Amino acid sequence: MSSMPKEGHRGKTKMEDIEGDASVGGGGRYTLKPTRISNEDIIICVDVDAESLVEMKTAGITRLDSIKQAILLFVNSKLSINPDHRFAFATLSKSASWLRKEFSSDVESAIGAVRALSATTVSSGQADLTSLFRLAAYEAKKSRAQNRILRLILIYCRSSVRPHHQWPVNQKLFTLDVMYLHDKPGPDNCPQAVYDALVDALEHVSEYEGYIHESGHGLPRTLFRFMSMLLSHPQQRCPQDDCDIPKPLMKKSAESANGEDNVHVSPSQ
Amino acid sequence: MSFDGFPPFISAQLHYLLNHFPDKIKVEQVVSGGNKSYGVGLDRFTLLIPYCLDYIKWDVIYNAEFPLAPPDIIFGPEDEDFHPLHMTGAEGEGDLKSLTRNILSDWNNKDPTRLLALIQEMRDQYMSYQRKRVGEVDDDRLKFEISTICSREGIEMHISSGAEKPEEVKFAVPLMDMNINKMVHGCPWRHPQKIYLQVIYPVGRKYASTPSAPRLKLMSTIELRALFSIDDVKLPSWLDGMCMAEYLPHLEESLQKQVLEAVSLIDIRRCFIEALTPLFGRPLEADPVFCRKATFLASSGSFVFLVHFLFSTQFPKQQPALMLQSSQHISPQGVPKKSPLLTEYPWSPRWEVSQMSERIFDFLADESLNFKRFCNESQPQH
């Protein structure tokens, strides 16, 4: 659940425990209906603006480094859930461009694409999502013809540049998820406004329920956690506000025995 | 599968064949017959056509330099006597001959459906040819067997005569007239799933006192495995002096029961996955049609990991196999950290579903601590 308040239903208005484990979640009882779900074609689009080179809390590791790691973890996890999902890669600076256009379920291909990710040295200035959506919509038609669904995962890194887009109102051909990494809010930036713009885009274009997560804390672990939540299959999702995962695996008798952990979870993280 | 290098008219016919043939047909050994320096392109290939629970290999030879002509088909070395255009014999085969003649004389290379029509027609003739050959075998017992099952639809026969091997006659008997596809909600199968009994008789033992049992083997279309595994089926024994006409109904009745049970087990698995959600949360992804697997996201402190549940067709008699996978640890070679497949833990199929869920939850709560330690030892958490 997001700790950034925003207009609309997504997210709460108070700062919340990011690890958020609501005891009653899912918005009602879960049922596994006997309707086919499609294999996914997933485009991972990474914002390669200069802000992707901002360091994470771990010294010597940039946002882009963590993003690369997160992508490999994501691809591996997704393929272990279902080896028939496929991936392609794109980048976003001023607008979108392909990094690896052919969809593939081969991990080696993803490793190669991730290695090729590099940031621009100069600020891109603006972020036009329209080109990205056009690219995704085009691929979505091809995916649909193969009985697959298309998902676009945007990993965005800019704290002051609100992305913009122009898109027909009722064209929802793919699902959009967003992972937003930003600086802590201050007088010289506007991550809240950027977040709101991302939520608008998501709600505008997304075919199935899209998820958005954000983090300003600079912990790679948080990024990995949120990316793991994006593993959920769009056709089997609940509304984001009802998300109740990950659930802690703790025996009721052992709630206080967290000796294994060096870092205890707390809201300030 | 793309066929680059074929002239478009061949490519179109081959694609149509592959997409519309009722069973899985394979293509291999694609070559060019023409002089490569003229760039005439590929024009010949080998087809592996399913027949009698095996494949027959036929070479299809177009000639890219004469695109209007129909292809030649070369049959396997064992089938030197197979001449689809020249078959004489029983009534009705005159019609088959003329049908083949029509397909070939009326060849239209612009019609993508022609190759399929030709291959299907040839295959039908091949079936008749094999039937005839089997019928000619001088073995009274075999003749008797054939006469009792002849009326069954869809039986394919094959007689193999290798130089070193003794002659054997193989039957592929489709079992059960059940539309299994219809029994599965949300069924994704493109082809009807079938179970066959393969029956192999040795030939030529004229002086055996009691006819020995034939070799029996159950086979099924591959996709059926998601629902039902024929490996789990124990074939009823073939009693002395039995014949296929007696054996088959017995087997079919038993199989029918097992298939019906397998279908009912889908919902048992479905309910179990649903019962996991109060403790494990909503799964990231679950197989909605056969309910053979589900993956959840769990945490142990700040350690976040995936929990994979794998259900065999024998669930709940056989407990689910579990596997943990870290969402945070990856080796330098790009391999994520996984636990081994966990199959031994407290389990009883007689427990209430909620108890099964709780017991697995407790087991995994402990196991995840071990797993976390294992992940952190080889590599510190980020």
UniProtKB/TrEMBL annotation, chain A:
Where does this protein chiefly localize? cytoplasm
Q: Where in the cell is it found?
A: Cytoplasm; Nucleus
Q: Where is the composition biased (Basic and acidic residues)?
A: 1-17
Record keywords, A-Z: Cell cycle, Cell division, Chromatin regulator, Cytoplasm, DNA damage, DNA repair, Mitosis, Nucleus, Ubl conjugation pathway
Q: GO terms for CC?
A: BRISC complex; cytoplasm
Question: Which GO biological process categories is it annotated with?
Answer: cell division; chromatin organization; DNA repair; positive regulation of DNA repair
For this protein, the record's Gene3D superfamilies field holds: von Willebrand factor, type A domain (3.40.50.410)
Please give the residue ranges the record annotates as the region Disordered.
Answer: 1-22, 241-269
Q: CDD domains in the record, alphabetically?
A: vWA_BABAM1 (cd21502)
InterPro entries this protein is in? BABAM1, vWFA_dom_sf
Per the record's keyword annotation, is DNA repair included, yes or no? yes
Asked whether the keyword Cell cycle is assigned, the reply is yes
| Similarity comment | Belongs to the BABAM1 family.
Q: From the Swiss-Prot or TrEMBL record, give the protein name.
A: BRISC and BRCA1-A complex member 1
Q: Which organism is it from?
A: Durio zibethinus
UniProtKB/TrEMBL annotation, chain B:
Report whether Protein transport shows up as a keyword of the record.
Answer: no
| Cellular location(s) | Cytoplasm; Nucleus
**One Pfam entry name:** BRE
Where mainly found? Answer: cytoplasm
Q: Which UniProt keywords apply?
A: Apoptosis, Cell cycle, Cell division, Chromatin regulator, Cytoplasm, DNA damage, DNA repair, Mitosis, Nucleus, Repeat, Ubl conjugation pathway
Tell me if Nucleus is a UniProt keyword of this record: yes
Q: Which GO terms describe its cellular component?
A: BRISC complex; cytoplasm
Biological process, per Gene Ontology? cell division; chromatin organization; double-strand break repair
Q: Which family does it belong to?
A: Belongs to the BABAM2 family.
Name under which the protein is recorded: BRISC and BRCA1-A complex member 2
Organism, as annotated: Durio zibethinus (Durian)
Highest classification ranks of the organism: Eukaryota, Viridiplantae, Streptophyta, Embryophyta, Tracheophyta
Q: What gene name is listed for this protein?
A: LOC111315296
